[in-house]
Amino acid sequence: MDFELTAEQQLLRNTVTDFLTARYDLEKSRAAARVGAGWQPEIWRAFAEEVGILGASLPEAVGGFGGGAVETMIIAEALGGALVVEPYVDTVVVGGGLLRRAGGARAESLLQGIAAGEVIAGLAALEADSGYDLTRVSTTARRDGDAWVLDGTKIVVTSAPLATHLLVTARTPGSDGPSLFVVDAGTAGLTLHSYRTIDERRAADIVLENVRVPGDALLGTEGAAGDSLATAVDEAIAALSAEAVGAMRRVLTDTVEYAKQRHQFGVPIASFQVLQHRMVDMHLELEQATAAAYLITLKLDAEPPIRARAAAAAKATIGRAARFIGQHAVQLHGAMGMTEELPIGHYFKRLTAIQNEWGPTTHHITRYATLTRP
User: Fold this and answer.
1) Residue 1 — very low, low, confident or very high, per pLDDT cuts 50/70/90?
2) Most buried of 22, 68, 74, 260, CB within 10 angstroms?
């Protein structure tokens, strides 16, 4: 497996990292997340206009740069290292992927908006009875003249309070699978019950009551969104894995530095052999997580069973590593590890949330076992 980046990919990594180092202030982003709008619109515009990362993995035909999974991995890892709260994965990876596969004039227009920083998308697919199977849909869509009318509820729609457009799964009469519809924010009959998650991001539970959308709101073929949703989940897991690697790398670096500075019994605690062993174990977990993130990134274009198996392995590995590194980092920092003043507490919250996003570790262990049965 080739882990070497091309010169262009290394330039992308350096560009994004340098921008975030110079412009992305953790204290300011936490304030925006806690008491502000939940994000920084000026940073999002800079992502589009100055750095170009919103279009890096989108087709050139819609204003993107035609990059692929590796470019997405590079960007997500850098964003994770800076603990960025802006909805890159929800909008560019999940939303952009679904729109790209759906095709059509409406999807192309939205992709252009994403690349320009004007469209923020959120996937409204999870329901109270769906579990982790996004094809189990109770929300309905029915024809009414040239329009569609949607009714139903969705839960834990991440980035929904920030979104300009929601991608909603619904079942149409007579169809065997789910369909995908785009609903503009503010459409009559659409109600959001918004809240802040434990990692200081924004999400909402959604109620759709006689939500009327135009005929071209249907993305792709009626009843045929199942395969695209499965692909979107695995692409999200790949990006989330890279984000987690970036966050864990920062956590480990900060922990090692803290251990060198913190003195006990007149010497740095980094000199204690038992703590050295613990930090080595954290490093090993990080290396395994990095390999898992590379694996799913390079398998995204493989056949669906192979891709799904790699995604399950990556999510399970990332979940275990995030728990191990996060908890040990907090312990090595002592009571300070969970304070608002230190970055480590904020990273710990994000790593805890990542363990459960797109299915917890236990779910993906079971998924992997199922996929590897003869």
Assistant:
1) low
2) 74
